[in-house]
Specification:
Blueprint: E1 4-9, H1 16-24, E2 29-33, H2 42-49, E3 60-65, H3 69-81, E4 90-93, H4 98-112, E5 119-123, H5 128-139, E6 143-148, H6 151-165, E7 169-173, H7 177-183, E8 189-192, E9 214-217, E10 234-238, E11 241-244, H8 246-264, E12 271-272, H9 274-284
Parallel strand pairs: 1-2, 1-3, 3-4, 4-12, 5-6, 5-8, 6-7, 8-9, 9-11
Antiparallel strand pairs: 10-11
Helix pairs in contact: 1-8, 4-5, 4-8, 4-9, 5-6, 8-9
C-alpha cells in the first residue's frame, strides 16, 4: 500500500523544500494543497481518515507547513479537531522549518555543553525558528531573551511562546550592531535567526566576550548572521567558544525532518510538534 503524505500549507504554493524532504523521508506520494485555513480543510481531512481500513490508516499522514508559524499552529490544531476515535491519521507541524531547524540547532548546542542555568540570547528571534529555539532553550533550563528591532515585536513572540510552552522568555530591543552587541554582553549562548543575508554581529562583537561559550547561526546565505562564523562550522572551537554554522547543524535538521516523516507512517495516531521533535533531535545529536 502506498504511503501518502498530504502537505497542508498555509501559503499559496506548498513548499518545494518540504516536498523533497517528504519523498526522502519515505513518502511514496506527496499531495500538496496551498492556501489552507481551518475554514477550508474539512473535506480534505475527511478524505484522509475515511478512505482506508483501520490497519491501513498508518499509510496516510498529514504535514502542516507554510511560512507563517502562527497560522500553521492554528491549522495544525484545526486538523486534529476533525479526528475522532478510530478515524485519525498521524500529523506533523513544521511551518518554515520551525520545529526541525530549531530542534537541530538547540540539540547540537546541548551536545556541546550544558544549557541549564545558562543565559541565552536569540538575536532577531521573532521568526518561526527563533521563537521555537527560544522555547526549547527555556525548556532545557536556560534563561532566554529574544531580540527584535522593535520591542513590541519581541514581546509578542515571547508571549506566544510563553502561552504555548509555559516558559518565561524575556524581550529586548536591538536594532543595530551596537545594541545587539550590548544584548549579548552577559550571554553564555547566542543563536542568530535573522533574515537571509543579514549580518547581525561582527567578529569583534563576540570574539572577545569572555562570558560567551556557544554560538549558532541559522543563516546559510552570505553575508552570514555572525561575522567570523563559517556556514560549515560543526561545533568547532573559535576564540574559546563552540561554534555551529547553518549547514553544520543543518545536516541534523535534514536527517531529523526525514526521520519524522518516516515515523508518521509507523502509526496513525502520532502528533509531532516541538516537544517530541526536539526529543528525537537530542537522541540523534
Amino acid at each position: 500500500m502506498k504511503k501518502l503524505l498530504f502537505q497542508f500549507d498555509t501559503d499559496l504554493h506548498p513548499s518545494t523544500f518540504d516536498t523533497v524532504v517528504a519523498y526522502d523521508g519515505g513518502a511514496d506520494h506527496v499531495i500538496g494543497h496551498g492556501s489552507l485555513t481551518p475554514n477550508n480543510i474539512a473535506a480534505l481531512v475527511e478524505g484522509t481518515i475515511f478512505t482506508r481500513a483501520p490497519k491501513d490508516k498508518k499509510n496516510t499522514a498529514i504535514f502542516v507547513g507554510g511560512s507563517d508559524m502562527a497560522a500553521g499552529q492554528i491549522l495544525f490544531e484545526a486538523v486534529q479537531k476533525h479526528f475522532f476515535p478510530g478515524f485519525q491519521v498521524s500529523v506533523m507541524l513544521d511551518s518554515n522549518g520551525s520545529n526541525t531547524t530549531a530542534a537541530a540547532c538547540v540539540a547540537k548546542l546541548a551536545s556541546s555543553g550544558n544549557l541549564a542555568g545558562k543565559t541565552a540570547v536569540v538575536l532577531a528571534g521573532t521568526g518561526p525558528v527563533g521563537q521555537r529555539a527560544a522555547a526549547m532553550l527555556a525548556l532545557e533550563g536556560a534563561s532566554v531573551t529574544i531580540t527584535s528591532r522593535q520591542l513590541w515585536n519581541a514581546e509578542k513572540a515571547c508571549e506566544a511562546m510563553e502561552e504555548r510552552f509555559n516558559v518565561k522568555i524575556h524581550a529586548h530591543a536591538a536594532a543595530d550592531y551596537e545594541s545587539r552587541a550590548d544584548a549579548i554582553k552577559d550571554a553564555n549562548i547566542v543563536i542568530t535567526t535573522g533574515a537571509t543575508g543579514v549580518e547581525l554581529l561582527k567578529p569583534e562583537h563576540w570574539q572577545n566576550n569572555a562570558k560567551l561559550e556557544m554560538l549558532a547561526d541559522a543563516n546559510a546565505t552570505p553575508p552570514l548572521g555572525i561575522g567570523g562564523v563559517g556556514v560549515m562550522d560543526r561545533g568547532i572551537e573559535s576564540h574559546g567558544k563552540i561554534v555551529w554554522g547553518a549547514i553544520g547543524f543543518g545536516t541534523l535538521k535534514l536527517a531529523l525532518h526525514r526521520a519524522c516523516i518516516a515515523q508518521l507512517f509507523e502509526d496513525n495516531k502520532l502528533v509531532l510538534d516541538a516537544e517530541n521533535i526536539f526529543a528525537l533531535a537530542k537522541k540523534m545529536a
